């Protein structure tokens, strides 16, 4: 059956590129939420190759995770290469990336493997969402190891579908791999080859969700204006330490978020801290937003 294997290996699956692109965009958001660093993820073309040829090119020590993918037959591998492992640990623990990674002969600690497993959990969720237009996957980790021979998903000459992703996070970069036996997705071969369900103009719900999460987690500055008054430039130029500027005591204070007024309230003390009780919410208008943007530019 060698001729058939060679024919399969030369085939292309255009839809895989779309699925990989969806996964990369969602995974980028997940990495930011978990590691708090921006990541650029570049998917390469999915390739069909022999498992032995593929696994033999993976640098060591890598982190291999075998995953069951119901209802598809067989298992798949998620792989963090040594440089990505180093990048994840450095980013997670706040490293500065100035030291050269010492990877050869290195073992991963229990804590480091826990961090890797969290990354894999995010990858599984994003991979599942990316594949929803093709098949509803239920994925579960069955084994993880630093040695490929203990997480074999196919015989050496068997054809697999392998995808790689170049990941760059600020000062670090590495590779992330996903592979699975070709026979696992053979029932969906026509969809993967013809491009069915690969309409790139459709709304990408996964990316929209990741973007929404990023926005919700963005830190903004909130300030409360208790009082304000006008003084002349001459008065301001004569101010010295110890001078007193009288203000009328206001009943209402205004809350600003990034210099945009969004509400009024009563100020006081709560739990031994100064606090503001919102009494009225203001929906920011376009003029307020443009004014705040202009202030930021200046």
Can you give a write-up of this model?
By secondary structure, the protein is an alpha+beta fold. It folds into 2 domains: 215 residues, 3-Layer(aba) Sandwich (Chemotaxis protein chec), CATH 3.40.1550; 76 residues, SpoA-like (Surface presentation of antigens (SPOA)). The strands form 2 sheets. Strands 1, 2, 3, 4, 5, 6 and 7 form a 7-stranded antiparallel beta sheet that branches. A 4-stranded antiparallel beta sheet has the order 8-9-10-11. The protein is elongated and about 85 Å long. The N and C termini lie far apart (70 Å). This is Flagellar motor switch protein FliM. It is a peripheral membrane protein. Pfam families: FliM, FliMN_C.
Category from helices, strands and their pairing = alpha+beta
What is the helical fraction, as a range of percent? Answer: 25-40%
Q: Flag low-confidence runs.
A: 1-5, 196-203
Sheet having the most strands: 7 strands, antiparallel
Just name the CATH architecture of the largest domain: 3-Layer(aba) Sandwich
- Rg from Cα: 27 Å
Topology overview:
Layout: H1 2-9, H2 14-35, E1 39-43, E2 47-50, H3 51-55, E3 63-70, E4 75-80, H4 82-92, H5 110-130, E5 138-145, E6 159-169, E7 172-181, H6 182-185, H7 189-194, H8 205-216, E8 222-225, H9 233-237, E9 253-257, E10 260-270, E11 273-281, H10 286-297
Antiparallel strand pairs: 1-6, 2-6, 3-4, 3-5, 4-7, 6-7, 8-9, 9-10, 10-11
Subcellular location: Bacterial flagellum basal body; Cell inner membrane
Pfam families: FliM, FliMN_C
InterPro entries: CheC-like_sf, Flag_FliM, FliN-like_C, SpoA-like_sf
């Amino acid at each position: 059956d060698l001729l058939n294997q060679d024919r399969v290996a030369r085939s292309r699956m255009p839809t895989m590129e779309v699925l990989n692109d969806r996964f990369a965009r969602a995974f980028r958001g997940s990495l930011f939420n978990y590691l708090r660093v921006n990541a650029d993820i570049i998917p390469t073309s999915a390739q069909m190759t022999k498992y032995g040829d593929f696994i033999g090119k993976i640098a060591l020590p890598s982190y291999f995770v075998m995953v069951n993918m119901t209802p598809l037959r067989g298992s798949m591998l998620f792989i963090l290469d040594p440089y990505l492992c180093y990048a994840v640990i450095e980013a997670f623990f706040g490293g500065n990336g100035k030291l050269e990674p010492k990877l050869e002969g290195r073992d991963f600690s229990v804590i480091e493997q826990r961090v890797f497993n969290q990354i894999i959990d995010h990858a599984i969720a994003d991979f599942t969402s990316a594949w929803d237009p093709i098949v509803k996957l239920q994925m579960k980790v069955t084994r993880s190891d630093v040695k490929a021979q203990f997480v074999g998903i196919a015989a050496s000459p068997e054809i697999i579908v392998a995808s790689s992703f170049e990941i760059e996070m600020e000062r670090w970069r590495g590779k992330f791999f996903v592979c699975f036996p070709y026979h696992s997705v053979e029932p969906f071969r026509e969809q993967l080859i013809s491009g069915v369900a690969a309409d790139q103009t459709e709304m990408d719900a996964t990316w929209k969700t990741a973007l929404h999460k990023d926005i919700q987690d963005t830190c903004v500055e909130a300030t409360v204006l208790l009082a304000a008054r006008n003084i002349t430039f001459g008065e301001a130029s004569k101010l010295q330490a110890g001078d007193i500027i009288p203000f009328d005591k206001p009943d209402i204070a205004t809350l600003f978020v990034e210099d945009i007024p969004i509400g009024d309230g009563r100020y006081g003390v709560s739990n031994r801290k100064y606090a503001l009780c919102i009494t009225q919410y203001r929906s920011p208008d376009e003029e307020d937003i443009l004014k705040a943007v202009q202030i930021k530019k200046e």
